[in-house]
Amino acid sequence: MNKARNKANVTRGESVLRAACRLVASTLQKKLEWYAENQELVTKNDALVAEQRGIIQQLQARLAAYEGREEGRGVRVKREDTVGMAEERWLAVVHAWLAVCEGGLGAGGGGGG
After folding, report:
1. Labelling 87: which of 50, 77, 80, 111 has CA 20 to 30 A away?
2. DSSP conformational letter for 105
């Protein structure tokens, strides 16, 4: 009788242990899936931020070169000159766009770099 009871207890204990192991394994599997998904998003975000930083640097360099050419000429563009007005508007748009891009990067764009 004791042998049968002991065997039943062991069998019941094994069943409980197996169920606990399945639960732990399932929980760990879900955590691994979340981590892999999250890491993929972080990696994509880092690549995007790096690309945006490169574009911003290129635009800043082009803008600095353009502004340097304007200063080097020593000629003030007249307001009546439609080409000059277009250039001024273009510079204002570039400055505004750079400010928005830099603000976006500083406000939470960087994942790790």
Report:
1. 50
2. I
Q: How far apart are CA 56 and CA 80, in angstroms?
A: 31
Q: Report the alpha-carbon distance of residue 51 to residue 12 in Å, rounded.
A: 59
pTM: 0.38
Q: At a CB cut-off of 8 Å and minimum separation 6, what does 94 contact?
A: 59, 63
**Predicted confidence (pLDDT) per residue in 94-113, tens digit:** 888 888 777 766 555 444 44
Phi-psi bin for 74: left (phi > 0), alpha (psi -120 to 50), beta? left
Total residue length of the chain: 113
- Centroid of chain to Cα 86: 35
Neighbours of 39 (CB within 10 A): 10
Residue 11 Cα distances to 1, 15, 19, 69, 98, angstroms: 15, 6, 12, 86, 69
CB 75 within 8 A of CB 87: no
| Tokens 């766009």, residue located | 97
